[in-house]
């Protein structure tokens, strides 16, 4: 269930090409695509191809791939010409996590408030 494809996982289906997405970047270990319900002018999700339920689980199991996700988040920001942006890992339903396949949100192109609420 972890480390490869997980049946029924939406983001594993995007990795497999079984659910369409607007791809932004791909690497051997990651896929970046536009969020279907954007919360900012740039709202891109960066995910590992392997399945882990959240970012901390990914980092514990496969730290090199967690680093790849972070590096790709920065590459997305550069491609989108964002000088200020936010990388978010919602973890747990109380924090708004709805898809339990690790993903970084890259948000930018507008002012971002802190604290986020
Ligand atoms: P979470 O709430 O788990 O941190 O983030 C999940 C994100 O996935 C949400 O921002 C949601 O809009 C996005 N999302 C959900 N379903 C799809 C989909 O089918 N395609 C794309 N591109 N994004 C999706
Ligand atoms: Zn998955």
From TrEMBL:
It comes from the Bacteria. InterPro entries: Histidine_triad_HIT, HIT-like, HIT-like_sf. SUPFAM superfamilies: HIT-like. Residues 10-117 form the HIT domain. A motif (Histidine triad motif) lies at residues 101-105. Pfam families: HIT. This is Histidine triad nucleotide-binding protein.
């Amino acid at each position: 269930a972890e480390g490869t494809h997980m049946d029924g996982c939406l983001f594993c289906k995007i990795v497999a090409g079984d659910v369409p997405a607007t791809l932004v970047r791909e690497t051997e270990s990651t896929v970046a695509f536009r969020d279907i319900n954007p919360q900012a002018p740039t709202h891109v999700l960066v995910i590992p191809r392997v399945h882990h339920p959240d970012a901390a689980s990914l980092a514990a199991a496969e730290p090199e791939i967690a680093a790849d996700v972070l590096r790709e988040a920065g590459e997305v920001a550069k491609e989108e010409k964002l000088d200020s942006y936010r990388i978010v890992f919602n973890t747990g339903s109380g924090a708004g996590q709805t898809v339990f396949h690790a993903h970084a949100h890259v948000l930018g192109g507008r002012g971002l408030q802190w604290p986020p609420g």
